[in-house]
Amino acid sequence: MSVLDTRGRPLRSLRLSVTDRCNLRCHYCMPEEDYLWLPREDVLTFEETSRIVDLFGTLGVDRLRLTGGEPLLRRDLPRLVADLARKPWVRDLAITSNGVLMASAAAELKQAGLHRVTISLDTLHRDRFERLTRMDALPAVLAGIEAVRRAGFPGLKLDTVVIRGENDDELADLVRFAGEADAEVRFIEYMDVGGATAWRPEAVVSRREMIATIEDAFGALAPIVEDSSAPAARFRLPSGQVVGVISSTTEPFCRTCDRARLTADGVLLLCLYAQHGTDLRRPLRAAASEETLLNLIQAVWAGRADRGAEERLGVRERGSYIPVNVLRRDAHLEMHTRGG
Ligand code: SAM
User: Fold this and answer.
1) Strands (E), the chain
2) Which ligand 1 atom minimizes the distance to the CA of 118?
């Protein structure tokens, strides 16, 4: 069964936020002092998650990504991974993690059947890392990256949010680091998503600028032409190394977005910028039949018109998207609740 939204986009990929908790406080994601957390009793059990995931599989999803919050904070995560990895329709099972706890988790995740790992890494300077994230954890993250390699995961990706005046002088170093780590670095434009309350347009380093900086250091980049709904545009350096650029802010790619998001408490979101979601937890816990839940998800996706990043591009006086007082009332609006 497959379902298209109002713009003809299929539902192919599901991002599962398994917790809204995080052990870092990145300046571009969680800059506030305190947060409203999802009530623990609302967080889906693995069994509930698995049931919902199966419904998405029936509707055409074949790619799953675990995210958060920091997904490694979710207790027993390998048990969920093992369950998801056993589903025959899952073609790609990945995780996005900040890497702080990865050193002790990588081998078990690999054994549980996880296919791929993405680690967020914004700087190679320890003091800068601490300033950006409010935790002195760069050595732990680097150990996590090493553990992912040792565990034998193919296709390691490193995601870097590039912010002017913070880490935009590190692009070449990060490319070199990725080359040595046999990883693909992807530079992400700073987005004004909910939670990014410190966002300002001047801090965005555009895809165009990033490419110019990388070309200055390494020579001309050759675009890799691929038929893919993946968010990164990929380029080959003269050395053959591949780098990616995710231009969600200046050149959004809503047209090919086939991603749905499920928060840890079971709210289905159709866009990173969506202001409302559909609660799947309540009907699930009220013992709704599989058919009722399938019809609900199908109808919601069929009615999807979201193109949040493109709409933001049209906003003239652009500042942070959701004011702090509104975020304080609804955790679902936060990037760390919906997952990147
Ligand atoms: N904790 C995990 C991690 O750090 O990778 C997963 C969750 S995190 C919300 C997912 C991704 O979103 C990270 O790569 C993070 O850098 C990115 N992100 C968060 N806020 C962002 C923003 N304002 N602009 C662009 N990317 C952002």
Assistant:
1) 13-17, 63-67, 92-97, 116-120, 157-162, 184-189, 222-223, 233-236, 242-246, 259-262, 267-269, 278-279
2) 5
- The gap between the terminal CA atoms of the chain, to the nearest Å, is 27
Nearest CA, atom 12, ligand 1: 340
Token pair of 214 as six digits: 């990388």
DSSP character for 4?
A: B
Query: The whole model's pTM is what?
Result: 0.97
272 lines ligand 1 (CB under 6 A): no
Per-residue buried b or exposed e for 197-212, using 16+ beta carbons within 10 Å of the residue's own CB: bebeeebbbbbebbbe
Give the integer Cα–Cα distance in Å for 230 and 253: 9
Q: What is the pLDDT of residues 184-229, one digit of tens each?
A: 999 999 999 999 999 999 999 999 999 999 999 999 999 999 888 8
Ligand 1: does its nearest atom lie under 6 Å from the Cβ of 11?
no
Distance (Å) from CA 180 to ligand 1 centroid: 23
Q: Quick check: 89 pLDDT over 90?
A: yes
Q: Whose CA is nearest to atom 14 of ligand 1?
A: 120
Q: Helix 77-85 vs helix 46-58: angle between axes, to the nearest 10 degrees?
A: 30
Give distance in angstroms: CA of 1 to centre of ligand 1.
32
Look up residue 134 and give its two tokens: 């409010």
| 133 Cβ closer than 6 Å to some ligand 1 atom | no
Alpha-carbon distance of 178 to 308, in angstroms, equals: 31
